[in-house]
C-alpha cells in the first residue's frame, strides 16, 4: 500500500494559520499580501460526486476532498472548484485566466500565484498558462501531457515556471514535447514517479507526487 501524505498535520496547519483557507468559489476578499494556489481536478470528478470510483482500469476512488485537505497550507489559500459535468476545458481555462488576472489586479504578485491541475485539470491548467504569457506565474502539470504537447494540441504553449509530474506506468507520460514547443519558459522541471498505479497514482494524496510538488510550490512562491 502506498503511503498517503500526512493529511492530519496539513489540516492542522490549515486550521491554525493566519491564511490558508480552502475556497470552493473565488474569494470575495483578496489580500495582496497572501498567496494563492488553484487546483483543477481530473475529468472523473466533474458532476456531483467528489469521490467517484473508476472501475474500467481499476484506479479506484478519486478522493477530491482528501487531496484538497492535503494540499491546504497556512502559507497560501487553496482555490479548488468542483466543476460541473461536461465543462468545456477551453472556456474553463479562460475563466481561470481571468481569475488569476483578478488576483494580480488586486495587487497579488504573479510569483505568489500557482495554477495546478491533474489530467483534464492539467490540460485546463496548461491552456490557462498559455493565456497568461505576460505574467510569470507558476504552473504545475500532473499527468497532463497525454493531451498537452500532442499533435492535436501542438499549438498550446506554457509560460513562466513550470513543473511536470508524471507516473512511469501511465501512458500520459512526459511533457518533453510540450517543453520543446514552449520556447519562452522561465524554468521547467520534470519529475517521474514510479508507483505502478498508472493514472490512479494521482487519485489519492500520495507522498510520491505530493511531496515534491509541495516542495516546488514552496520554493517558487518563496515559502520558508
Number of individual domains:
1
H/I helix tally: 6
The CATH architecture name reads: 3-Layer(aba) Sandwich
Form type? globular
SSE-based structural type: alpha/beta
Q: Into which percent range does the helicity of residues fall? A: 25-40%
Q: How much is the average pLDDT? A: 91
Distance between the termini: 31 Å
Provide an overview of this structure.
The chain is an alpha/beta fold and about 220 residues long. It has 6 helices and 9 strands. The longest helix has 17 residues, at about 90-105. The protein is globular and about 45 Å long. About 40% of the residues are buried.
Keywords:
224 residues; alpha/beta; Rossmann fold; 7-stranded parallel β-sheet; two-stranded antiparallel sheet; 9 strands
